[in-house]
Amino acid sequence: MAPSLTHPSGVTFVDDGEHGSTHLEAAVYYGGGETFTRSRTYSHSHIHGYNPKRAPAFQEDVITRTRRMSHDEKSVAGPRRFLIDVEETIRVVLEQEDTDGDFQISITDAGPKLVPLGTATSNGFKTFDIRGTYMLSNLLQELALARDHGRKRIVLDEARLTENPVDRLSRMIRHSFWHSLTRRIDGDGLEIITADPKNRTGRVQPRIYVPHGEPAMAEYYRKVARDKPHMNLDVQVLPEKNDDPYFVKSLNPKPGLLALAMEEVDDGKGGRTLKGFPFIVPGARFNELYNWDSYFISLGLLVDGQVKMAKNMVEHFIFEIKHYGKILNGSRSYYLCRTQPPFLTDMALQIYNQLDRSDMEANRQWLKRAIQAAIKEYHTIWVAEPRMDPKTGLSRYRPDGVGIPPETEATHFTHILEPYAAKHGISVLEFSEKYNNGVLKEPGLDEYFLHDRAVRESGHDTTYRFEKRCANLGTIDLQALLYKYEVDIATAISEVFDDELMLEEDFPLMPFPPTPESYANPHRERSTARPQTSDEWFERAEWRRGVIDKYLWNESKNLYFDYDTVLEKQSLYESVTAFWALWAGCASEEQCWKVVSQSLKKFEVLGGLVSGTEESRGKVSLDRPNRQWDYPYAWPPHQIMAWVGLERYGYLEEAQRLAYRWLYMMTTAFVDFNGVVPEKFDAVKLSHLVEAEYGNQGIDFKMVPREGFGWMNAAYQVGLSFMTTHMRRAVAACTSPEVFFGRAARAEIALAQATAASTDPLDLAMETLSLAA
Fold it and tell me: Were 389 and a residue from 173, 427, 563, 565 both cysteine, which residue would form a disulfide, CB within 3.0 to 4.6 Å?
């Protein structure tokens, strides 16, 4: 009779050949009980507490192992697996490899980049070396995930450490990052989302503002406050007109979250209750719903099949337009006066095209609500004064507001305020309080903050492109977006609503075409007076195209520029947002060709497209520091808009080349810096370690990246859709764009030469003579 074996209770034994899927999500991979193999037992087995073996040492000298070579003997026993004590291995890895103490393993760490792990088939007796930054950082990430799931020891597949980096990052975005960035505003989600890293008032009491006209919602949150007294939740109801700038300023000492859309559901007790629609936040210090971030995030969600989540975000935008008058910059009280670049129509149509076709009428009604909301936003915000300049017909970023924007870092405006404080002989803090309260009047400072708020509404905060003039500029990006609104609305009315859309909400329609005289006339047609037709919206789009060509297109420079409506001339800052005209479709074929052939090279660098040219930015110094939306920085929105725009006009190779550059930069950062996915990059240095006014977001994590950053996640997933299989493999191998496209160019030349040699009669004749000789 064989002797009985003893083992810890609850242990699951796995056959040596039983591996299953190695790339399951952490919740599945680490979610089971403790596992061991039924391998031969060695006298030195550490099955009940394996300690990773260290390189042998004599006093202070470490004897390093020789590097493995390509001709070394390979294991033929199948995929390698390791038996690991989680906490002890975390300790060893961090102690030995994390030399800068940031709880990440990156190429800047000076450790030996080698940790031996015991193999599972030997119960930890035999070891195999884990080498290099990528494998070690993946090991640290896997250990952190195992710890999250309460595991003390694990059997880890080597394939999780050597996983193709493109596959790994895409998988983490799809299954982990989106989940970690998900928020919901209701009783279950409030404790997470009421936290506001931008709140510097010193008052951290959670507060939610409920819009006028939603009594059931207000009562719901009051009940949450009663049921969860530990939260100390303050519930406030806003007045009907909640975007008066003086009222909004009065809320600055008590900032709070703004309520968003909810649905009525069963409460599980035979009654009904409200539940918030989940949505995605950008991440890091931006812990609320944002406007243009959400558009790009939704593109990534659609690629990943998360149509319902993207649809939820449109639901919130419809709610914001109804109750707050606009799609807000962000869903906090200090954003009530401000919106951001408008993308609602394209966002809604992209989602509509991916909705389940089993109930087309429900889909049609949903799109109808979204288009109606977009029409209201268009008339009451974008073509209404003060954003509209009736003389030119150009719309501008020009929000209302009073005082100093409260959401910025405490010292952000110190250099601006110091001269005014010195003028009055008081401290900057005292001056700020008196200026905000209206005790001190400074018209020059009022003008400065008018433009500063406009910069923030543009989404490009900050850039020398907009310095002290943004509110006066009819920008190419905004005109292109509104052209797309007009075309999208016309197309939806024509193709989905039988060329007739009756608006349900009453609001004033702005005159068309805009003139100073028509805008001076106080009479306004009402939205409910007649149905909307596609013809009038196509006419608006065609008229706007003419305005863009007249004021923004520069024939001699082969590029679109912003137009200063006060100085009445173009602002000759070269911005990559010129490519938004391609995305919107308002450029002619000739204009597109000129932009691509003559101007693309001004913005294209190793890592993709920079925000603007170095020449336009000008010299930087201690007194004139870098701004994050200028050269050499690159952002996901600019990349995606250019890729889509180029593809739209048939320049697929250029789109793929730019997408390759961007994905290469993201992938190398992911490989070299412990899985980092930041907010932005220096695309010239291929670095996420940027020196700009806000630093970078999405880089401050311990051991394992949890969220990435919203639109950067999306850019990766969207960018992969532009890649051929060959390009994807090259990105995974971190093949530099210069090498990859250099080879491709040489191959094309060789092919062209070969083709010419085989078809040109003279060449064939000369070749025949040479052979005969």
Answer: 565
